[in-house]
Amino acid sequence: xxxxxxxxxxxxxxxxxxxxxxxxxxxxxxxxxxxxxxxxxxxxxxxxxxxxxxxxxxxxxxxxxxxxxxxxxxxxxxxxxxxxxxxxxxxxxxxxxxxxxxxxxxxxxxxxxxxxxxxxxxxxxxxxxxxxxxxxxxxxxxxxxxxxxxxxxxxxxxxxxxxxxxxxxxxxxxxxxxxxxxxxxxxxxxxxxxxxxxxxxxxxxxxxxxxxxxxxxxxxxxxxxxxxxxxxxxxxxxxxxxxxxxxxxxxxxxxxxxxxxxxxxxxxxxxxxxxxxxxxxxxxxxxxxxxxxxxxx
Length: 297
What we know:
About 0% of the residues lie in helices and about 50% in strands. By secondary structure, it is mainly beta. The protein has 3 domains: about 100 residues, Immunoglobulins (Immunoglobulin-like), CATH 2.60.40; about 130 residues, Immunoglobulins (Immunoglobulin-like), CATH 2.60.40; about 60 residues, no CATH class. It comes from Geococcyx californianus (Greater roadrunner).
């Protein structure tokens, strides 16, 4: 065996003749006679199995593999393993060295969110780790993602609208020079919907689907959903009930037996107010009124 050579293989994305490739580069120790290299490409598929997709023997300090949507697909985590040997003594090989896994596809940063019903906007970045090729019929070099939200788990007891709102329904990833595993990026904001329902923690999902692409690589790809956990915050309550007894937000109690239309509640900071209309309830011993109508904005 040759000693460990510190080849340190690294995978980077690259466009070659308009098609998406991954390039494995490694250090080349000075040696006489010159070394040859065996580069084995493998992938972690979405099912969690690691499988070999290509094997090269080369004198170069790099090796390419194409992401063709068949052997290598978007959503795969890809590795390259490099072993060195001399041509004269191929049985004397260095220890194989494996690169870090390279995730090829679209990443959300952060990968999950935990937010509260406090009205704050949270920034979500969408990043493509591979370059976006320009189809022959289109020179715009972009991917359009259709965004949607839904309750997590249709069998959960929370059915109904999701607890989150997005700042956009579509985002465009436009090609840019690849820097630090980002070849295209966009951002949007996520806000928790304040629904006043006491439902504890609730999980919603953000889904992104590429639209309008005809090439095999993108057409069959759906990025992994983003889970958003929304935490309730305590909300104030006020009441007007029966003949009307009124309890204010701070717990003060009084009665209002008058007939007429009243301003029950009004915000000093936003356009929010509630009016109530009270009619005679037919009290025999004393005047009694009941709520018969409400208007809110």
